[in-house]
Amino acid sequence: MATKVSQLFSSIFLLFLVLPVLSQPGSSASPKVGKPSPFEFLEHLQGCHKGEKVEGLQELKKYLENFGYLNYDHFENHTHANDDDFDDLLESAIKTYQFNYHLKTTGALDAQTVSKMMEPRCGVADIINGTSSMRAGKKRPHHGHSTIHIVSHYSFFPGNPKWPASKTHLTYGFPSGTQSNIMSTIARAFNKWASATHFTFSQTRDFTNADLKISFHRRNHGDGNPFDGPGGVLAHAYAPTNGRFHYDADERWSIGPVPGAFDIETVALHEIGHLLGLGHSSVQNAIMFSNINPGVTKGVGWFCGLFGCKASANCRYLALVVSIWQFFGWWDYEKVF
């Protein structure tokens, strides 16, 4: 028994030694002419608060609905989903957003909140079916009447969708015509996830039957989640076992850190996390944080990449490792002890 426990904790310790991913300078993969961000409408809403009627608040409501913060359909007596009224539900949704992103929970559109909302981001919602996992061990009122349940530092999609325990090898593919340097860059991201999990990955030419399908699209591309052009939603991916991962082809993509462009590998690392069942993190340095700015690169680095933690805090996060291992079926108390 002692030997098994020793081996287990030795393996956990090795995970802490995984080095951060080194950024590799590269050239732009698909440069785009600068255009206004789809989120620029937020700028003129700065300073708005409950009780006001301001043109553009309807777009803000759609923004918050897209990312899971607002759903007027749940409330029969509220008819403000398609108007510019700053009502109580909008204020509550903004407070929840501010809470998730470590902002002062004023419920008003202050400068810090507007700035954060305008950042390019992943298209996967922060809150799904009323559940947010972005703030650990906390609860806060949501939409005036209901409560969003906040789970741990790491997060999984609601219902914990995951790949079958017997399926630890996943194939991934690209449609014909995908540039080879893009495929090799994304392959590096898969290799980094393989080094941090029990999953293994291999590329297949059979795009149709691949477990994971990676492709570039513009605007409405048939999955019900249209892209919005440069500078807004960068990419999105689906929970297990859907397997789809889409980049917005209208973005300026790069291989490595390039000013004004988004690093293909960094975004791949984030979206692969979704493919494996992970949700968003509230830790800005974590790879699963929803927002990413141009010219920025991140790595998995396992703990430091996933949770944004420091090596000196390893013991603090040991319980998180065990919990994640339990989720994926890697930890069995009966076998270990």
UniProtKB/TrEMBL annotation:
Annotated residues for binding of Zn(2+) 2: 122, 270, 274, 280, 288
Positions annotated to bind Ca(2+) 3: 228-229, 248, 251
GO MF: metalloendopeptidase activity; zinc ion binding
Keyword hit for Metal-binding: yes
Key words, A-Z: Calcium, Glycoprotein, Hydrolase, Metal-binding, Metalloprotease, Protease, Signal, Zinc, Zymogen
Co-factor remark: Binds 2 Zn(2+) ions per subunit.
SUPFAM superfamilies: Metalloproteases ('zincins'), catalytic domain (SSF55486), PGBD-like (SSF47090)
Motif (Cysteine switch): 120-151
Binding positions (Zn(2+) 1): 221, 223, 236, 246
Binding residue positions for Ca(2+) 1: 251
BP terms from Gene Ontology: collagen catabolic process; extracellular matrix organization; proteolysis
Listed cofactors: Zn(2+); Ca(2+)
Signal sequence bounds: 1-23
Chain positions recorded as Ca(2+) 2 binding sites: 211
Keyword Chloroplast: no
Domain Peptidase metallopeptidase: 159-309
Residue numbers annotated as active site: 271
GO cellular component: extracellular matrix
InterPro entries referenced in this protein's UniProt entry, alphabetically: M10A_MMP, MetalloPept_cat_dom_sf, Pept_M10_metallopeptidase, Pept_M10A, Peptidase_Metallo, Peptidoglycan-bd-like, PGBD-like_sf
Pfam families documented for this protein: Peptidase_M10, PG_binding_1
CDD domains named among the record's database cross-references: ZnMc_MMP
Family: Belongs to the peptidase M10A family. Matrix metalloproteinases (MMPs) subfamily.
Protein name listed in UniProt: Peptidase metallopeptidase domain-containing protein
Native source organism of the sequence: Nyssa sinensis
